[in-house]
């Protein structure tokens, strides 16, 4: 089944604002910010696995942060502002957030700054 034929999950108005219209949730308000259980973070719109709990870290920025994605799950796209790099789900192209490099938070030197409303969490 191609992306065009795929049925996506129903989204709330806030999820649509962020995922479809490239919005941002307010910092320190996301339900997944303080999630520390072992598990998988999946795309809210299409359920594709995006991140593992092992790659999550506290960047103290107000949004869930990850230093690595599941291989092939996330695409990097130049942001419309010309300064940042947007990250989207590689399957449905839903907006996740932005990726930053060179901040030295982790050994991988990468921070995926992701909106909680763009993801679901599945404990394992």
From TrEMBL:
Instruction: Give the Gene Ontology MF terms in alphabetical order.
Output: metal ion binding; peptide-methionine (R)-S-oxide reductase activity
> What keywords were assigned to this record?
Metal-binding, Oxidoreductase, Zinc
The answer to keyword Cell membrane applying to this record is no
Instruction: Enumerate the InterPro entries for this protein.
Output: Met_Sox_Rdtase_MsrB (IPR028427), Met_Sox_Rdtase_MsrB_dom (IPR002579), Mss4-like_sf (IPR011057)
Segments forming domain MsrB: 4-124
Cofactor(s) required for function per UniProt: Zn(2+)
Pfam families per record = SelR (PF01641)
For this protein, the Enzyme Commission number is 1.8.4.12
Q: Give an example GO biological process.
A: response to oxidative stress
Xref: PANTHER family: PEPTIDE METHIONINE SULFOXIDE REDUCTASE 2 (PTHR46081:SF8)
Write down what this protein is called: peptide-methionine (R)-S-oxide reductase
Question: Which species does the entry assign this protein to?
Answer: Brumimicrobium oceani
